[in-house]
Amino acid sequence: MISRGPHPNRRESRPRRPITILLLPAVIWGSLIACSDGGSRNADGAPVDPLEPRVEIYDGFPTDAPDEYDQIRVIEVGDPAANNVLVLSPGTSAGAAYFLPLAVDLVKALPAWQVWSVDRRENLLEDHSKADAFKAGRVTHDEAWDYYIGWLVDGTVTSHIEPPASNEVAFARGWGMEVAVEDLHVVIDKALALGGEVVLGGHSLGGNITVADAAWDFGGMAGGDDLSGLVLIDGGSGPASDMAEVQASLNQLATGSPFNDLLGLGLPWAPGVFNLLGSTAALLEPDQPSPIFDSPLIPPGLKPPVQPTNRAQFGYALDVDTSLASLALVHLSLGTLAPAGEPRGWVDDGIVPIDRAATMFSGIDGIDGTAWYHPLRLTIDGRTTNAGLPHPSQELTGVRAIHGDELDMPIFALETSFGAGRVLAGAQRLGQQSGIPENKLTLVEAHQLTHTDPMAVEPDNPLVESLTGFLGDIAG
Fold first, then answer.
1. Which H, E and C letters describe 55-81, residue by residue?
2. What is the pTM of this model?
3. Domain boundaries along the sequence of the chain
4. Distance between CA atoms of residues 359 and 369, nearest Å
5. What CA–CA distance (Å, rounded) separates 456 from 360?
6. pLDDT tens per residue, range 174-233
7. CATH says 26-126+164-259+373-475 is which class?
C-alpha cells in the first residue's frame, strides 16, 4: 500500500503565497485552448477556465541565496477542483512553459486531473520585462531585440539587459539535486493536500530528477512513498559516473560560471533569449523579416541561406533537419523552408505545428519554455543519481537517492530516437530492482520522434495517447 501522508521527518512546508495569474495575449494562447465554463469559480464568482494556465508561487528550500530566489513557481492547468495531479519537472535548460501544450491535451482527456509544471528557481534570474512588453504590444520586436541582443554589438543602445556576473550569482553553484528535489517535494506536498493521486514525471533531465525524488532519503523514508506513479519522458537515471570525473567537474565549477553555455559564446543566457524572442515573433509578427539573419552573434548554422521571416527563422533554427547538432535537446519535427518568397516563409508540414512549438517556448508572462541560466551543478549531480541506488560518487555531491530498490508504484516511460535504448532499459532496471511486476510498467517506443517532439506533436501524439491511459488507470 502506498502511503499518502507526509513524511514525519520532512521539513514542514512554509505558508503558501497568494496566487498570481500570468496570461498571454489571446492571439497566442487562444491557439491552444477553447474556453470552457467548468464548475469551478474564482473568488469573484466567475467561472474558471480549466485550460487557462494559473501560476502559484511557493517558498522553496532555504539556501544561502537571497530570499527572492528561494522560491518555486508552478504553472497549473486543469480544473482546480480536480484532486489528482501530475507534477512535471523540466529538463536541461528548459522552463515550465514547454509542457503547456501537453498539459492542455492531457486535462482535456482527463478532467479529473490537473497538470502542474514546475519552473525551477534558476528561472527567477531571467529578465522578462521587454519580452512581456513585446507580447503586450507596448514595444516593437526591434526594441526588444536591441534590449536583449542588439546592445552587444551596438554601443548606441544604452537601455539593455544586465546579465549577472558569475561572482554575483556564486550561490547558484550550489543549486544541485538536493535543492531541486527539496523544491519539488514542496510542490508534491501541495498536491497531496488535495487528497487525490499524485504522479511525478519529467522530461530528459527532469526524468533523472523524478527518479532522484522517488529514491531520495527524507529522514529514513523514501520520497516515492508519497507517489502513485512515475512518468519518464525520454529521460531517467543510469549508472553513476566515475568519482574522478565527478570531482573534476566539481573542481571546474568552483571557479567557473555556474551555468550551462549551450552555444559556447560565453553568454549562457543567450540561447534562452533567442528562443523567447524568436518564438514570440513567430507568433505575433510571423511574416516580418527576422532581425536574427543580420546579427553577427547568431551562429551561421542557425541561419537559412536567404533572408527569412520570423516564423521561418524560428522553424529553421529548431527543425531537426536544419538545426545545429549541439541543440539536439530542443530539436522538433517542424517543416521546411519555403521554396520561394522574399523574405522566405515556412511550410508548416511537420508533425509538430510551428505555432504550437512557438507557444511552448514563448510561454506566458514571466515564464517561457527555456531556462536561460541552467545550473551546471544540477547536471553534475544528476550523473550520481545511479538509478536511485547508493554510490560512492554521492559522497561528493550530497545526493541522497538511495531507496531506488524500494519503489512500489507503476512506471511509465516513453523513448524517442534521442533515448537510443537507454530510457526503456533504465525504466526496466527500476522495475527489476524494486520487484515491480511487468504489468505495472508501461514502456512506449516512439523512435520516430525527436527528444522534444512528445510535448508538441498534434494530432496523434503517442505520448498523449499512452499517458492518458496510464493516468486513467491510476485514478480508477
1. EEEEECCCCCCCHHHCEEEEEEECCCC
2. 0.92
3. 26-126+164-259+373-475, 129-150+262-362
4. 9
5. 8
6. 999 999 999 999 999 999 999 999 999 999 999 999 999 999 999 999 999 999 999 999
7. alpha beta
